[in-house]
Amino acid sequence: MVGDNTNPVRSPLLPDRRQQSDFFVCDIFDAAPKADMASMEHPIFSIATKPDRQIRRYESGRNFVEIIPSAKGLATVHDRDVLIYCISQLMAALNDGRDVTQTLRFKAYDLLTATNRGTDGRGYQQLRSAFERLRGTTISTNITTGGQEQLDVFGLIEHARIVRQTREGRMLDVEIKLSDWVFNAIQSREVLTLHRDYFRLRKPLERRIYEIARKHCGQKDEWRITLAKLQAKCGSNSSQKEFRRMLQAIVRQDETHAHMPDYSVRFDLETDMVIFSNRGTLVATTSLESETPALKPDTYEDARQAAPGWDVRYLEGEWRAWIIEPPRDPDRAFIGFCRKWFERRGRP
């Protein structure tokens, strides 16, 4: 047609002028709290209430971890809330089949509320101090995450950036780049879900004891550990007498209030053994397959295109064994899994 300047190739839409971000924007408000298993197993974070500037080295068999503080001290168990929030957001996105990156951007207010922190000026200042300690704490280890053995030295986060601040000085948007070590654990799903009451535990020692129980007791009915070994796993610098006193105080409170999440804790004075008993509040991971609904027929065809050459029924089995909680959109999550599978492994 004369005068028709329509280009059959050119899109009628205006160009997408939105910045193609190289960071993941957190927008999941109800993500289940999760922590990486490596730092649940080893005493990476300080349980001291004052700045801890002591260099620590722990060895277990051929594995070692050395934690070197900055001038502001080691990252604390409460600073760990930042990493738990980031891990939770990324795992929720992976379960939904979304792409994630090592750099995250989020609202400081969302982190504070999700981790049960105050949102007044003091809460924001504490968050800023947590960023500084997380960036300043240096780890040297050969403990593997994601099948990769780290023999280099790294921080818990690569950097933290306050993108905007209000006139009162409160941060609004925050950008964090996680360390390779933490991000490898996320991609390999080497994480465990924590009870939401974890953020309600007041004492750093309570939080650390819960992490250890969650890692070692898991779904078992009971788990025992000697007092001396528990103290080493907690990273406590107190004398054994003082550590025993602090533990007994927690045991007495738990007997009265049952406040420790998922596990009750008691102490056998005669054998110096600490016993954790499962309260039965954990959701068994084996129930996930029945909780995750069947996929739509069209999803399998999309999966074949996402992972050419692979048996999609085999990939479905791998995916169902891989997920650790029912995804919000199973079909999209499965296709995302197939795409990542093909990117890493290529054709069979």
In brief:
The protein is of the alpha+beta class and 348 residues long. Helices cover 38% and strands 18% of the residues. A hairpin with a 4-residue loop joins strand 14 (263-268) and strand 15 (273-278).
Major sheet strand order = 1-5-11-10
What kind of sheet is the major sheet?
A: 4 strands, mixed
Q: How many structurally independent domains?
A: 3
Number of strands: 15
Low-confidence stretches: 1-6, 16-20, 285-290
Q: Number of DSSP helices?
A: 12
Output the keywords.
348 residues, alpha+beta, Arc Repressor Mutant, subunit A, 3 domains, four-stranded mixed beta sheet, four-stranded antiparallel beta sheet, 12 helices, globular
Description:
- With 348 residues, this protein is α+β, with helices and mostly antiparallel strands.
- The protein has 3 domains: 24-194, no CATH class; 199-278, Arc Repressor Mutant, subunit A, CATH 1.10.10; 285-345, no CATH class.
- Helices cover 38% and strands 18% of the residues.
- Strands 1-5-11-10 form a 4-stranded mixed beta sheet. The protein has a 4-stranded antiparallel beta sheet with strand order 3-4-6-9. Strands 13-15-14 form a 3-stranded antiparallel beta sheet.
- Helix 2 packs parallel to helix 5.
- The longest helix has 18 residues, at 240-257.
Secondary-structure map with pairings?
Elements: E1 24-25, E2 34-36, H1 37-41, E3 56-60, E4 63-68, H2 80-95, E5 103-107, H3 108-114, H4 121-136, E6 138-141, E7 144-145, E8 148-149, E9 153-155, E10 157-162, E11 173-178, H5 180-187, E12 191-193, H6 204-216, E13 222-226, H7 227-234, H8 240-257, E14 263-268, E15 273-278, H9 288-291, H10 297-306, H11 312-322, H12 330-345
Parallel strand pairs: 1-5
Antiparallel strand pairs: 2-12, 3-4, 4-6, 5-11, 6-9, 7-8, 10-11, 13-15, 14-15
Helix pairs in contact: 2-5, 10-12
